[in-house]
Here is the input.
Amino acid sequence: MIKKQSSVMKRLLAFLFAGMLFGTACLSGCSNAGPEKAASSAETESVQETAASSAESEAGQETAASSEEAEAGMDEAGLPEEEPEMPEIPDDVTGGKPWIASCIPGNVTADTETSPADDFYLYANKEWIVSNELPEGSPVTSRDRTAGVNARMREALAGEMLSGHDARQAQLLFNAFVNTEARDAAGCEPAKKVIDDIRSISTIEELNAFLLDLERSAGVPTFIKVSNSRDYNTHRWVTGIGLSDETFGATIGTMGMDAATVDPESDVYQARYALVHDVLTRAGFTDEEAKKAFEARLDLEKEILKLTEESGEEQGEDTDYTIDQLDKLTGNFPLRELAEERGYGSAETFEVRDASELRAAAELYTDEHIDQLRSYLICGYVLETAGWLDTKAFAAWLADCAANIDDPIPLTMPERNKTAPETALNLIVEIAPTLVGRAYVEAYDLTHIKEFITNLTVEAVEAHKKNINASAWLSDDSKKQLTGKLDAMGLDLVYPDVWEDYSGLDIEGLGYYGARRAIWLNDLARNASLTGTEIDDRLWEDPSILGGVGAYNAENNSFVVSAGAVEEEVVRYEAGEITLEELMGGITGYTLFHEPAHALDPADIFKDAEGKDLEASLLTPADLEEYQRRTDKITKYFDGISVWEGQQVDGSVCTQEALAEICGMQARLTYAAGQNEFDYKRFFETRARLAASLHTPEYALACIMGMDRHPLLYLDTNVTFQQFDEFNDAFDVKEGDAMYLAPDERLVIW
Ligand SMILES: [Zn+2]
Here is the structure.
């Protein structure tokens, strides 16, 4: 359980941080959408992993982690399993070496002197730093680079101009959410019908009938769950069996309630209980009944844990079962019928994720435990669907999401300043990214943007290859392997060529609850339809094309760049409003040149061109030794940096990302060398400004300790720049300047 929760947390944090790096909508949109998405990914990587909301949470871990952070970063080294103790933060946090932590509010004032040769990040961002502050309740802020695209999308969704099937469904969903009057008029009535239905169940036989009737049980966790997820080893979808995600509280948008250890006074318990209590009392429960239901659900979870422990079985590897073997394992539970009823019947084998846990759960599936099972279903249903209801339940659902982020710092951005249309857009990007993506493509023709980005990406990959081929120490064999992996890299650029199938969805005329329920059913059917099929790589793991998504997927050696991240810059560049240097120093150059570097980073050097684990590495043994010497040098260099007096950076946390950015920058400079009269000053200034950010010392500390795998942004900027002569020449950096690094101290990989 601990492992499960912590991986959900990693994904969520990865998602939040992707936003911080890119300064995107993530920070404004995570509060509601983020957690939902994170939970679903189950792998996803979150970047995303996920299941969107309910749909995926029920239908499964369809989405796997795609995000760079989730995949390459967090998952590999990840957060420590044991929470490390947070060091004390001194009152004076100005003593960083070799640079002041200029991202911490108050460390820089209008009087602070700046010089490009001593602290380039501060030089480029001082004006922004002194004229911005942290929004109330937020530990971090940065430039919002997606405001323009999001505003245009809200306008498109609120209007009537969209006519394609999927785009129209996005519009209907958006407007159903924004119509708070209709949502509040319906109140909790839609949920009451389902809750009353479950309350009327008094035998296992009746419970089976309920679970096997999707019309009755839509949105309700089935206790034991069937779902398909990607397996890149076989390149096929595998059908998995496990306890519903809602068990032990690891449900959509939430995490962190282990039945055996949770403290009823904790924020998590209180927020979950408040949510269940709100909906149940409005659906006819007394206070006492609501409390009993909540506790009965926890009691059932405790019994599962106890039986699992008593069995003495080790939690083994995933094991394949035939349906006959499963019948024996799951006893009374109607698994065979459920799999058939929900469309998974054609699976030849089922991957069981934890047999002892499943056996324990099945043992409790008896008439004797009917009250606990009923409570399990009712509470799970409320946690899952409260966000589909009126504004009161939605607010409680958001508070639950916020409380379930198990971290000393409140990462979830408050929604209080958001308008309903802003929240609606953030939400539907998470719930049904395909629908809103197709609306985006229909409202704004992105064909040309896709062509432009594809061409520039080809140049980016060529620049990486050129650097590798020019390396003085790599053998020809190693060069061939490295460039071969870059050539084989999958490119998911701007928008997918093939979209997830929503052709069966029709929410015309439905209220918001009805629309969410229909999407939940559609996603379940979509997931089931993948049973036994080969993975279609044209379908993106996370088809969100709004927001600043840029991510490398280590599992299949591909990377994704969303339309929302680059569209505005490309349009401005082509209109002559920004220069090539600004395009290359902006998010476009960053994403297209940084992400390919991950294919060859310290984790992925051990994976082949298809993303499969190698017995050795892409490099010859001698070259691998040199590669590791160079990556160790990066680690040691960061170890020697302090953010304030007494607080060193942990180089092992950020080496992978630091290396990707140094190699990405090297490739941008190789590309620049081929351009006429490239303005390096403007390029470096733009790249530094991209990283403008403010955060609390607590947040900075959590990042250093592993919450974010990237170096703090002022370090990501300064350390990267000081490796290159182009920078020194442009700003006249000389020995003795704080930005200066002697050639033999530099951190160049190739
Ligand atoms: Zn990266």
Summary: The chain has two domains: 2-82+186-438, 439-504+535-691.
